[in-house]
Amino acid sequence: MSTPTTTPAPTATLLDSRSDPRTPRTQWTPLMITAGAIEETFRALEDGDPDVRGRREALIVHPQAPAGVRGLAPATQVALGVLLPGEQTVTTRDNTTGLGMCLAGEGVLAVGERTMRLTQQDVWTKPTMSLETIRNEGTAPYHYIRYSNAALLESISAFYEDYGGRAAADAEPAPTSGARAKDLAPAIPLGEDGSQLLPYEHLIDPDYVEDLPLHFPWSAVGQHLSGVLGLTTGYTGRPLYVLYNPATGRLNGTTPSFFATITAVGGRFDGGTHRHMSSAINYHFAGRGYSIVEGERFDWGPGDLMLSAPGWAAHAHRIGEEGARILTVQDHPLHTSTGSLVWQEDIENGEILALGAQAGFETNLATFGSR
User: Fold this and answer.
1) pLDDT at 172
2) Helix, strand or coil, per DSSP, at residue 273
3) Which of 23, 159, 185, 354 has a CA positioned 20 to 30 A from the CA of residue 365?
């Protein structure tokens, strides 16, 4: 029998907090990916070969992303994908949560037990560890953009993926007694402040909320946009709706990590300058306007994708005369869940709050009537 070898442990670096009490925060720069660059990427993907998962995808990686972290924002990975007519991906699953939007063509997405037929501007969600297969049953290429928390998981070395397929997942579950492990070991109160001791059974059998794959068809979403189209400059909020997933509860998310919103403006709208610790990525699928980020102007039009609000960057958006339709994805729920969603609505004189841990801001919606 061979003798196991030991590898010397790396030497840790010790920092004296008296000389360096806080780690400096590096703010990522705004980044614009034009509609032309996106179309060129789609053409290159169509001309190339699928990867080992049967996918034709390209990741959009910010130049400030650390080595091994493939994100457009620190916690957000963004991919452009194509499936040619008749193609189907390999069935996979991973521990990311995410969402996507159909940009062109039609796709059929099987996530867990649900199958969705997606057309242009439809949005869908993918829960963690759900088996996923995409196919193109149409006659034109299927184009999509997808967002996931893979960048965050890569940054903490926690990304997991396998190719087990449906056979393993559909195997007959092991018989159970019907009792939950946590019920066999009650919590032990320690004091009047709510502190408790939890036995191990609580760690391996936590309460959970079922997160189902969701489909937000544009044909239905578009019918309800009149509630925000009438909001004009002077409204202190934003003319948008959240694509809400009830499984996220108070996080007000589309997934546990992200919200996706649809901004709909009928004409010119000037939003106030504000900032928040969550990063915002805008896909402009109709209309024109510009954004001011840390004093720099970025003009955008249909098909442009932009990291428009790196965390804590002061920014404002101006919508042109023709109005606009914008899909915005922010890692807002992730920050809410960790108590780190620091937000300032009025960059000049407004207070700074931790949303979800403190009471939030008010708007003047009453002046404009209810939605």
Assistant:
1) 58
2) coil
3) 354
